Amino acid sequence: MNALLNGLRVVELASDRAAWAGKLMGDLGADVIVVEAPGGHASRSYGPFLNDEEHPDRCLWWWNYNTSKRSVVLDLVSDQGRDDFRRLVASADIVLEGEDPGDLDALGIDHTQIRAARPELIWVSVTPFGHSRADLHEPTTDLTLLASGGTVWSCGYDDHSVPPVRPGGGHAHHTASAFAVMAALTAVVHRDLTGIGQHVDVSMLAATNVTTEVNTVDYLYRGATNQRQTGRHASEHKTMGIQVQTGDGGYCTNPLGLTTAGNYQSVIDWLGELGLEEELPEFFFLQMGVERGGVSLKVLGQDVEATEIYRAGREALYLIASKLTMAEYFVQAQQRGIACGAVYAPDEALADAHFQFREYPVEVEHDELGRSFTYPGLPYTGTSIPKSIRRAPMVGEHTHVVLADLAQG
C-alpha cells in the first residue's frame, strides 16, 4: 500500500513536546528520523518500564510516543555532531523540534540559520508560548499550560466544591502536536505549489486555549464565563445531566438525549420489553414526545412542555440503565438509534467489539524481545492509512545506516 506520507522525510529533535507529532507522521508513512543525544533522550528515563527494569530501551513512554521512527545519535555540542545534523536536515522535507527558544540558535543550527540556505525547508517548532512572546522562557508544565489555556476550568463536576479535573496523559503536548501535524502538512501543500517552505511556530498555550470548545469565544465576545459540568459541555447555565450509572456500577453517556419521535417510541418500547412502564411516573411525557414529533434542543428551558418531555426522557434512561450492565445498556441504546458511549478504562476500550472491528488495537512486533505487544493504533482510517505500526527504535539503532546513506549522497 502507498501510505499517505510515503516519500516525506521528517528530522525530529527528540523532545516530549513534539514526540506525538513525530509519531503521527511516522505512523502515516513518513520517514521520521529522531535525533537523540549520546545515551538516549531524557524521556527514555520516564517510567513505567517493561517488567520494572529501568533501561532506555524498555521505557514504555518512549515505546508509545516513538513508534515508526528511526533513531540517530548525534552530539550536537560537538562540531561533528552539528555538521552531521546539517547534512541530515539537507535531506529532509520537515524539521520538527520542541527546544526552548534560543537553544538551537546558540549552537548555530536554528531555523533562521538553516532555512537561509534552504528556503524550501519546513521547520516546525513546538514550544510553550511560541517564539514571539516576551515571557517565552517562563517555566511550564503540562498542568500549568492546561490551566492557563482554560482547559482545566472546563473539566470537572457539577459540584464546584470539588477542584477542576486535569486531563491526563500529556494533554497539552498532544493538543499542540495535533496542531503541529496539521500545520506541517498544510505547509507541505504550500511548498509543493510555490517551492517555498516556512517556519511553523506552534504555541502550546494557544493550542490549548483554542480547543476549549466555545468557552474562550464566549468569554471574549459575550463576556460569559462557562462552568464545568459532569461529563458534558461547560456552559454559562447548568444543563441536564447526560451520564447514566448502570446496574453494575459503570457509566454511559447519552450526549444528545432524546430529540426525535422515534427516540421516544424506542424508549417506550424498551421500557415495555423490560417491564418498567409502571416504575416511571413520567411515562405519559414520553407518549407526548411521540405525539409532538420529538423536541428540539434549542427550545429547552424556554418551552416548558418540551423541557419536561426531555427531562422525562432522561429519567427513563436513568431507570433503564439501573437495570442493565454497562455493556448491555451501551449496545441496546445503540441498537435503538439512541446516541450512547460507554465510559471505558483504557484496557476496556481496546477490548470493545467496535474498536476491534475498526482494527484500532494493533499488534506490534518487538524482535529484540521475541514477542509482540498490543498498542493503540492510528486515530485515522482510510485506503492510504497504514494498518500497522513499527516498534520504537532503540538508542541510536539507525545511526550507522542513516549516516552511511548521507555519505553516499
CATH architecture of the largest domain: 3-Layer(aba) Sandwich
Q: Which structural class do the helices and strands define?
A: alpha/beta
Report the radius of gyration as a whole number of Å: 26 Å
> At the first level of CATH, what is the class of the largest domain?
Alpha Beta
Biggest pleated-sheet summary = 6 strands, parallel
Proportion of β residues? 5-15%
The average pLDDT is 94
Order the strands across the largest sheet as they lie in space: 3-2-1-4-5-6
Output the CATH topology of the largest domain: Rossmann fold
Global morphology: elongated
Query: Span between N and C termini?
Result: 27 Å
Total helix count? 16
Q: Regions with pLDDT < 50 over 5+ consecutive residues? A: none
List the helices and strands in order. EHEHEHEHHEHHEHHEEEEHHHHEHHEEH
**Helix content percent band:** 25-40%
Number of strands: 13
Domains (count) = 2
User: What is the fourth-level CATH superfamily of the largest domain?
Assistant: Crotonobetainyl-coa:carnitine coa-transferase, domain 1
Provide a descriptive summary of the structure in words:
This protein has a six-stranded parallel sheet with strand order 3-2-1-4-5-6, sandwiched between helices. α10 packs antiparallel against α11 (283-292) and α10 runs parallel beside α12. With 409 residues, the protein is an alpha/beta fold. It is elongated. It folds into two domains: 9-212 and 357-407, Rossmann fold (3-Layer(aba) Sandwich), CATH 3.40.50.10540; 240-343, formyl-coa transferase, domain 3. The longest helix has 24 residues, at 171-194. β2 (31-36), α2 and β3 form a beta-alpha-beta unit. It contains 16 helices and 13 strands.
